[in-house]
UniProtKB/TrEMBL annotation:
Subcellular location: Cytoplasm
Organism: Actinomadura rubrobrunea
Lineage, broadest ranks: Bacteria, Bacillati, Actinomycetota, Actinomycetes, Streptosporangiales
Molecular function terms from GO: rRNA (guanine-N7-)-methyltransferase activity
UniProt xrefs under NCBIfam families: rsmG_gidB (TIGR00138)
Gene: rsmG
One GO cellular component, as annotated: cytosol
Family recorded in the similarity comment: Belongs to the methyltransferase superfamily. RNA methyltransferase RsmG family.
Record protein name field: Ribosomal RNA small subunit methyltransferase G
Length: 216
């Protein structure tokens, strides 16, 4: 808990209430596996919280396929300056998320029940996050249309991060993306460090195809 105190600071009591709810209702409702309870902090909460290291102050964030709120709820707890939308298509999960937001009094969070492709024209956010949602080549097609020009997708990935980035190159080229990188955050706080794939939307993705036609 020393690391948790360092990461969450004054927000640690809120994070503790969230952890308790995950370990209880989250397991009962099938959002967290029973085997994850003993490692909620290092594998889930701290693992997600350190993503805040690379998110700018006051950013507008959308968490795609938020599920139990990882990483969206955790980021809202550790960074109250962020404005976060938890995007989740399943009713039972959005019900859970709304309960979490109300219980923790997270005034910087809204819950939206929808698929990313259904709301693409409604958002132009600074940051899109996703954890254990889909392979990167599919995820970028959902995330990029939600970003403002210059906005970033931060995808939490595991040991296949580099391979997924390589596999996603045809899709990234189709969207006109030229800036991508692998990042590790949380060194000294979580072992192993959290691996992120950062994809920068250098132009508005939904217009990319039309732009190519005009230039040909």
């Amino acid at each position: 808990m020393g690391i948790a105190r360092e990461v969450f600071g004054d927000s640690l009591p809120v994070a503790e209430r969230y952890a308790e709810f995950l370990a209880d209702a989250g397991v009962v409702r099938g959002l967290i596996g029973p085997r994850e309870v003993d490692r909620l902090w290092e594998r889930h909460l701290i693992n997600c919280a350190v993503v805040a290291e690379v998110i700018p102050q006051g950013a507008r964030v959308i968490d795609i396929g938020s599920g139990a709120g990882l990483p969206g709820v955790v980021l809202a707890i550790v960074r109250p300056d962020l404005k976060i939308t938890l995007l989740e298509p399943l009713l039972r999960r959005t019900t859970f998320l709304n309960e979490v937001v109300d219980m923790l009094k997270l005034s910087n969070v809204e819950v939206r029940r929808a698929r990313a492709e259904e709301v693409a024209r409604e958002f132009a956010v600074d940051i899109a996050t996703a954890r254990a949602v889909a392979p990167l080549e599919r995820l970028v097609t959902w995330a990029l249309p939600l970003l403002r020009p210059g906005g970033e997708l931060l995808a939490l990935k595991g040991e296949r991060a580099a391979a997924e980035l390589e596999e996603a190159q045809p899709v990234l080229k189709r969207f006109g993306v030229r800036r991508t990188e692998l990042l590790q955050v949380g060194r000294g706080k979580v072992d192993p460090p959290t691996t992120l794939v950062r994809v920068v939307a250098e132009r508005v993705p939904r217009r990319a195809k039309g732009s190519r036609k005009r230039s040909s």
